[in-house]
Design the sequence.
């Protein structure tokens, strides 16, 4: 909720600043808005991005519903060795001990880093919010999982 209010305030301030500037700034802001729109559209149209977003969403759902074996099916070989279903269960329980009961999550963004695709999901918990970072390799397998 706080993030949403801050986002709306930020957008309002940006629009107010744009309205007060000259035509050259208006042209620049239109270019920036168009670039952002094109980036968002290309992300939405990219079937690979859609697939990994869906996998990341399913992965978090599987964990949240106690389906740790199913969640691990999305892992690459290294992750399967490092984060077993039992370890994943322990991780989830520890997380909920720290931030409260899981409520929901939603997609935030997709980024590229060092040849990997990284999907960020905002996690909503009873006491605090977190960011789930799910990293994918070229084979669309989960090669990393971090909670911030």
Sequence:
């Amino acid at each position: 909720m706080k993030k949403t209010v801050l986002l709306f305030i930020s957008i309002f301030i940006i629009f107010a600043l744009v309205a007060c500037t000259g035509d050259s700034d208006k042209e620049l802001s239109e270019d920036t808005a168009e670039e952002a729109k094109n980036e968002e559209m290309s992300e939405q149209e990219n079937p690979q991005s859609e697939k990994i977003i869906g996998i990341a969403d399913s992965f978090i759902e599987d964990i949240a519903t106690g389906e740790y074996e199913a969640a691990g099916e999305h892992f690459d070989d290294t992750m399967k060795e490092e984060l077993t279903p039992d370890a994943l269960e322990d991780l989830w329980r520890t997380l909920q001990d720290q931030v409260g009961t899981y409520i929901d999550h939603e997609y935030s963004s997709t980024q590229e880093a060092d040849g990997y695709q990284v999907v960020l999901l905002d996690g909503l918990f009873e006491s605090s919010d977190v960011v789930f970072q799910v990293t994918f390799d070229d084979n669309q397998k989960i090669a990393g999982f971090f909670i911030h």
In short: The radius of gyration is 19 Å. The chain has two domains: 2-43, 46-147.
